[in-house]
């Protein structure tokens, strides 16, 4: 991986003038465009070379390659949701449920903007391959884990790799395809991602029930090998897309490692506080209060550092000034928070309340995931045809809210129709608007800001998982234990916490089992209540998003702008 060195500055240049973002800045005077290079070259704007877009078989091969990579990481997201209850049985660590999911999202959320910078300054293909490699290493660590902590470490490494793969995939689509194809291709890519999560619970359930939960991680190795070969053969980024010129010192400064460290530390502190509070420690105990204080402190310091860093920040605050960006970022944050809470607690509902096996739990989540994928493809196609954004996001939020409201009405004796129907409504609703924030921000960003903006959007999608999976776990455990204390004070809370969700019928019998199941149902319903609040807030956010249409890339004027911007 080799960084490009910028042209030395003249004697009148200051340090700020030599920064990569300053070097890339173009000066336009009297219709003549001037760029920094080995020498100053004046080019009429109309003579700018055309962007090199992939078409036909070449575009198909690139999309197939990144889709296979996305399938690899998407399988892991789906697999773990049905494997978690059995992993808690193995290690007797019910209070680690939040970590099994959050560890991945902590790293994805914190590193997504970091990867946005890395993709901007280094070779896209090499960074993408390295991301797949990190994901595979994390899979090995989790598969061979001797204890719960090792699973969490492996999941964290997987999250780092997932961040690079997803961020790289979204950028590759932006780089290789014609602008008018972006909505359909991003919608299709999101559909592939969700199809993989459809297969994940089924595969995970089969492995967990018939072989071992460890194969939920080992399976990534035989799948990952051929994918690496595909990437080496077909992942070719157009020649007009080049790393931003910068020295290695400048690249390290641009990565904003202090900001990344503080963001990750703040997320870890919050997760620890929510894991301890009301479960293994009282909310009034010093460790819980200390971690909450550190979470707030680290977050505030992070914001200050980002403001001081300016364009070097992993989250340049300048990019969040426009309403189209910050409103879509918040919309993405909240809609994904609701999605993660449902996808992680439906399997717990199936396995604990209905006593289903892991494989049946996976099968029964297919309607939700299938209609999510269908909604994503419908949304991408509709945006590509109409160029509208906000109406689909509002429709998505309303359908999502109706679906979560039905989830909240579930009870211990709910029939199959009662928990399948809401999945159809909710899944299609979430999928319909899920990819639109990414489309909006990429299309309304300046070319030099696309990588950073993509990283910010992926961070919002992932960091909501880090926050709200931990929040959901805290709500579930605290409300479940409170209900149990009220209905059956003689049952040990320690025994309940350290029993896996799918192992309840082996640990408890008779009236004790009924009391535990009732308490579990209280906790699950309160998680769905939290999701319902989030989905209702998403409706309000949809109303804040500007009613703008995507640029018409078929027009000659827009094509000319694309040519000039890509030089």
UniProtKB/TrEMBL annotation:
Residues 62-554 form the Major facilitator superfamily (MFS) profile domain. Residues 1-48 are annotated as: Disordered. Its main location: membrane. One of its GO terms (cellular component) is plasma membrane. It is a multi-pass membrane protein. CDD domains: MFS_Azr1_MDR_like (cd17502). It comes from the Eukaryota. One of its GO terms (molecular function) is transmembrane transporter activity. The chain crosses the membrane at residues 59-87, 99-119, 126-145, 157-177, 184-205, 217-237, 257-276, 288-308, 358-380, 392-412, 424-444, 456-476, 527-547. Residues 1-16 have a biased composition (Polar residues). InterPro entries: MFS, MFS_dom, MFS_trans_sf. It is found in: Membrane. Residues 19-37 have a biased composition (Basic and acidic residues). Signal peptide: none annotated. It holds the Pfam family MFS_1. Keywords: Membrane, Transmembrane, Transmembrane helix, Transport. PANTHER family: MAJOR FACILITATOR SUPERFAMILY, MAJOR FACILITATOR SUPERFAMILY (MFS) PROFILE DOMAIN-CONTAINING PROTEIN-RELATED. This is Related to permeases of the major facilitator superfamily. It comes from Phialocephala subalpina.
